[in-house]
Inverse folding.
């Protein structure tokens, strides 16, 4: 069973009846769901995932103390703790995972502050560039099954993706890094006889290409160990995942290096095609550096546009 399915069933059969029975006056102010850290919140969990931090549980979101006071919050915490310790063959853990509890009663402001550094999801353009992308992904993943006050849903919609200027600034930076690592430094490292350095160049190219593809899809890139799985599920350019895996899992002997460079240029061409389709570049060539600066020119905010092209990465 997938973790989100387990969590929803646990809430529906155990959590919601408890709230309706014991906290009818508070229920109109509560939200419930599962989001945040953990593969189950992205729907990426499998049999291997069940070896740690996999259990029935959900998050009960509380608004501020002006609406739900500390005593009521304590009573809700105690009621949550008394929910069944076993459900559908799975046991609730007595220990918190590293980084703190992923389930239970949590103030909405505390959850979003922990993920993004801000309680209400209202960022300046500069602040948007400083929040780790994987943390933004964790703030808006998963599912919310109940939101009577609407606070959690509004926050998640506000954080759903970068403002367009931030997307373009980050995209420009990653395009330039793709050019430097893949189109330029990879072959130079090969000619120097530095195969290890060449492979580092490949890694840098793949990292930046992957970041660019998520930006072109207007999706946050999750934590690195889930990036390939998420990439394969994107609607645009997901085919590049197989090519990128080939690049980082093969060597750099002369014949192989020549083939790999052709793959690098192929990935670059596909991304350039998408840039043109989205009308975010005026360049007309295969040089990613020129496209990087053209994308940067599309940033509307003059202060952000005039910052270094790599400022967003």
């Amino acid at each position: 069973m997938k973790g989100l399915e387990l969590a929803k069933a646990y809430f529906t059969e155990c959590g919601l009846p408890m709230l309706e029975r014991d906290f009818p006056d508070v229920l109109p102010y509560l939200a419930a769901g599962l989001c945040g850290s953990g593969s189950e919140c992205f729907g990426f969990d499998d049999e291997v995932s069940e070896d740690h931090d996999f259990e029935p549980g959900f998050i009960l979101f509380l608004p501020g103390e002006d609406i739900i006071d500390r005593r009521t919050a304590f009573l809700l915490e105690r009621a949550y703790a008394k929910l069944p310790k076993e459900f559908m063959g799975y046991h609730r853990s007595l220990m918190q995972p590293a980084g703190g509890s992923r389930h239970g009663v949590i103030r909405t402001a505390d959850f979003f502050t922990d993920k993004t550094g801000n309680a209400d999801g209202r960022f300046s353009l500069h602040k948007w560039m400083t929040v780790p992308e994987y943390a933004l992904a964790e703030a808006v993943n998963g599912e919310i099954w109940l939101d009577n006050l609407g606070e959690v849903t509004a926050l998640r919609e506000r954080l759903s993706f970068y403002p367009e200027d931030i997307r373009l600034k980050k995209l420009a930076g990653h395009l330039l890094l793709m050019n430097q690592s893949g189109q330029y430094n990879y072959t130079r490292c090969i000619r120097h006889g530095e195969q290890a350095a060449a492979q580092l160049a490949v890694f840098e190219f793949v990292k930046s290409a992957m970041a660019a593809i998520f930006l072109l899809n207007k999706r946050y890139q999750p934590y690195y160990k889930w990036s390939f799985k998420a990439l394969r599920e994107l609607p645009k350019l997901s085919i590049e995942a197989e090519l990128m895996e080939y690049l980082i899992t093969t060597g750099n002997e002369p014949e192989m290096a020549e083939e790999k460079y052709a793959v690098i240029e192929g990935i670059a061409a596909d991304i350039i095609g998408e840039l043109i389709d989205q009308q975010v570049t005026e360049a007309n060539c295969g040089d990613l550096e020129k496209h990087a600066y053209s994308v940067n020119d599309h940033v509307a905010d003059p202060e952000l546009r005039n910052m270094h092209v790599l400022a967003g990465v």
Notes: Residues 164-306 form one domain. The chain has a mean pLDDT of 94. The longest helix spans residues 164-191.
